[in-house]
Every structure is written in C-alpha cells, then in structure tokens.
Amino acid sequence: MDVSGLVWAVTLVALIAVLAVDLLIIGRRPHEPSVRESSLWVGFYVGLALLFGAGVWLASGASAAGQFYTGWLTEYSLSVDNLFVFVIIMARFAVPRQYQQKVLLIGIVLALIMRGGFIAAGAALISQFSWVFYIFGAFLIYTAINLARQGEPDEDEFSENLLIRWSRRALPLSRSYEGGRIVTHENGKRLFTPLLIVMIAIGTTDLIFALDSIPAIFGITQEPYLVFTANVFALMGLRQLYFLLGGLLDRLIYLSYGLAVVLGFIGVKLVLEALADNNLPFVNGGEHVSWAPHIPIWLSLLVIIGTLLAATAASLVKSARDRRRALAEVRG
After folding, report:
1. Cβ–Cβ < 8 Å for 93, 195
2. Which residues contact 88 (CB under 8 A, 6 or more apart)?
3. Is residue 278 within 8 Å of residue 129, measured between CB atoms?
4. CB distance 87 to 225 below 8 Å
5. Does residue 31 register a pLDDT over 80?
6. Where do runs of H (alpha helix) occur along the chain?
7. Neighbours of 77 (CB within 10 A)
8. Which of 123, 212, 256, 330 has the smallest set of CB atoms within 10 Å of its CB?
C-alpha cells in the first residue's frame, strides 16, 4: 500500500478538524451528555470509520480495507476495556460528571499523540527486524493469560503511575475544579486544578494499554497508515461510548475473557507469521518453517467478531440471571 505524503497530510488535517470541533462544542457547554446525544455521536464516529474503510477499499482494494476494518474493530474492543479504568479514575479523583467529557477528550488527544510515537517505532522495528514478531506474539500471549486470570480491574487494584505522583508533588494545585478550568488563580498565585492531573492519568493510562493494543494491530496489518487511522477511529468515539455504556460496563463480566481470547489469537498469529518468515539461526536452522499456516484477514475478522459477540451475550445472560436470582431472594 503506497500512501503519499499528501494523503497523510489531508488525513491528519481532517482528523484534527473533527477533534477541534468536538473540543469546541465541549468547551462552550460543559455537560453530561444524554443517552441520545451519546448514541448519535457514537453512531457518527462508527459511520465515519465505516466510510473511511470504504474509501480505503476504493483506493487500495479489498485486502487493505479488510485490514483496516479488522484492526479498527480490534482496537475499538480493546479501547472498551480502557473504559473500566476510566470509570475508576473518575471516581478516584471525584470528577464532576459535567467536566468528564473535557477530561476524556483531552486525555484521548494526548494518548493519540503518544500512540503516534509508538506506531512509528513499531513500524521501524518491523521493517528492519522481522523477528520482532516473536516478541510481539509472546507478549500478547502473556498479556492474554494475565487478563484471563485477573479479569477487569477494580478500584483497589488501580495505582497512580510515576508521572501522576510526580505531577501531584511538583505542580502547584488548587483543591477544587474551578468550573472545569485547567488553570486558576488564588491569592495572586497561578495554580493548576485537579483537572490537569486527571487528564494526565487518562492519557498515560491509555498509553499503558497501548503496550498490548499496538502489537495486536501490527499482527493484523503492517501498514503504518492503516495502523494509525485504525487507532484514531477507535479512540475518537471513546468519550461518547463512556457515557453511552454507563452502568452496562458492570454487566460485561466476561468481556475480559473475550479480549484475552482475541489477544491470544493474534499472539499465536504473530508467532506463526514469524515462523513462516523465520531467519533466526537458532530456530529451524535459520530456515522458513513450511508448516506454519498463514491466517487470512477474513478468518481473523470472523474470530474477533465471534469472540466479542459471544463474550457480550454470555455477560448479559449471566447478569440478567443474577438479577433475577437476587430479586427472588428479596421477595422470598
């Protein structure tokens, strides 16, 4: 896939314009969005991603479009897992609901900038060293096992990272959110509000999640343009999805297991691709492994969609059954 500098520039300008409009809307009227508003925005961003994929299909063919859609769906599902931690962060810092949109959007913009660096580094590594797929694959399998064991994080498991702790100590902070502003003045002194710390927490936490999501999408496509745009479209609607799902997150009890299966599958896929292109002298004598199968994009897409649907359906059935049992116990 040959992407010119002009296409990159137009894409970046268009995405920045969309995010700027989003930020302008929030800045003019901070509020907690309704279910209808959140649904419309989520539908808009999903539609935008589908339309972009159609454009990729027309410009570069079905294979490239399939890679984009599969990568976007993978990143989107992994981003939903981020929402559990976002809920914990909002509760930990007692962020008023009307300011949470602003926190999420700016935190996500910071995450996009940092992920861009990750993607550039990953693409450079892959282009120079094909054996890096062994590392990516092993890491994803390890992450999948840990996720299956631990499940979704709870508030007791969340700990502030080094940057958050340093920011608390080094920055002059006010005690209140001051109407959702980032900077305020008290007694002639310029202070930052806790909103800045929350934004740092959201951005850095998402960057930590990128440690598994970026290798995962490189297991689907090695095209930097598709990797970047899939990440952007996955994150752009995350803020509205946070408000849309709301209490539903607590009912998705099997989502972590579904995501573990997805990560494990992609990890195995990466290892098989590394074996098929092997040039390490201590693996099969430096020869390609002929029996290592190539997993096509359409099969990857089916596995990912099927796994996520099964995990979601099982979660909703289990939560409904638990509610009926609890209600029966109260009545009994």
Report:
1. no
2. 153, 154, 155, 158
3. no
4. no
5. no
6. 5-28, 35-60, 62-92, 97-128, 132-150, 162-170, 194-218, 224-236, 238-245, 255-276, 297-331
7. 22
8. 330
Q: Cα–Cα distance between 13 and 17 in angstroms, integer? A: 6
pLDDT in tens, 186-214: 877 888 888 888 888 887 777 777 777 88
Side chain identity at 131, as an amino acid letter? W
Residues in the chain: 332
In tens, the pLDDT along 97-131 reads 778 877 887 777 777 787 888 888 888 887 777 77
> Nearest 10 degrees: CA dihedral of 245, 250, 251, 257?
100
Check: CB of residue 215 under 8 Å from CB of residue 122: yes
Query: Can you tell me which residue has the tokens 């399939």?
Result: 66
Among residues 149, 169, 168, which one has the least CA distance to residue 157? 149
Query: Half-sphere exposure of 66 toward its Cβ, with a 13 Å CA cutoff?
Result: 12
Burial class (CB in 10 A: 0-12, 13-18, 19+), 149: exposed
Assign residue 187 a region: left if phi > 0, alpha if psi is -120 to 50, beta otherwise? left
Whether the CB-CB separation of 202 and 104 falls below 8 Å is answered with yes
pLDDT digits (tens, 9 = 90+) for 234-255: 888 787 888 877 666 677 788 8
pLDDT at 11 over 80: yes
* Residue 197 contacts residue 164 (beta carbons within 8 Å): yes
User: Does residue 5 carry a pLDDT above 80?
Assistant: yes
Question: What are the structure tokens assigned to 150, written together?
Answer: 């631990």
